[in-house]
Amino acid sequence: MGLLSFLDNRGAPSVRVEPKVSMPAVVKADSFASGSYPSWLSAGLGALPSATGLPVTPFTALQSAAVFGCVRCIAEDWSKLPIKVQRMRPGGRGFDVLHDHYLARLLRRPNRWQVPVQFWSFVSTCLSLRGNAYIVIIRGNGGEPKALVPISPDRVSVLLSPKGWLFYHVSHPLIGEGLTLHQDDMLHLRGFSLDGYLGLSPIMACPEAVGLAMATQRHGATLFRQGAQIQGVLKAAAKLSPEGAARLANSWRETYGGVDNTAKTAVLEEGLTYEKIGMTSQESQFLEVREHQDIDICGLYRVPPHKIMRLGDAHYSNIENQNQEYIDNALLPPIRQVEELISDKLLFSEERDVIRARCDFNELLRGDRKSRVDAGVAAVNGGLQNANEWRIDEGLNPYPGGDEYRVPLNTGAASSAPAPDDPARVTAPATSPA
């Protein structure tokens, strides 16, 4: 029976109870790379500064438009994908979709306050920013999963027992304060890991790349606030008193500072001269630096630049390939981990060999009707599915006679080919005609 079965006693008792093992646990040290800071450091500093002088954390990094765009892109595309529960047919020939299985009902409504899109979007965001995502499994009296509660990484500590079992120290209003859960009651999604227990936060692994992106973005804002080009010194022929110098500086800033005053013509009198000492945006290669940093951050998340509207190198000929690479490299690895964790933690042991969970990537083509229709026509004409199967996938009603499979008339089974000595077999002449 699960450790959280006491939270939901409405389920009918079942004889299929898988006991949990309790062992003494040793607290695993906080990891900076995972985005978890010791409490004294978080309270005192809030974050570790990068070489740019800006504090970089998984939360401050969202100030970078590229980081926000990549995290949001993955979260939204991930949350679009429905998860289907399938049972293997007798003999292992194909799978049937299950709609009434307890796992299918759980995935359609993981908890009382989140629909699947909201649930998986939050899970994806935690994984992208922190390198770890935690989902507590609430079980019924028979050990069956009744609800899934996603927990912020800030509320979870990973514990490692001397014999290698993982435990999770959780504090959450719906779970309890200071509750320790066995690894069988937790779906723990890990990013790239150095120790196999905690995932590595891409933000904390590459703070300089993120810090430079934040710094260039802030530099651009400051540049325009100060009027972009007016950065220099005023020289007077006579010595100015401190009061006079302050008054002159304030007057200059109010008259010529800011974006609205950028194009004004400066009028100098009483021997004043202006000497420019600041760099222009071209001299500092500001735009090039911003572009390169955005590409670096896209590389961290394996998101093509065009997905966050960086279209400098986007062409019709390469966007399709980049979209496929995005699915293969950015979406498929974490979703494959979800599928395996669902089979391992949410199914009983006797069901794992015949039931599986699979994400339907066809949902990514939902807005591209032409591609869906072209693929459906090819599948129906090639005998991969019948017309009614395709119509049901498209949300259309089946029609009489649509259950028949079609095959191309210009092809046939290899077993139906004439034998070499069959007179009906057409062979090429032995010699070439003159």
Automatic annotation (TrEMBL):
Q: What is this protein called?
A: Phage portal protein
- What Pfam families is this protein classified in? Phage_portal
Q: Where is this region: Disordered?
A: 401-434
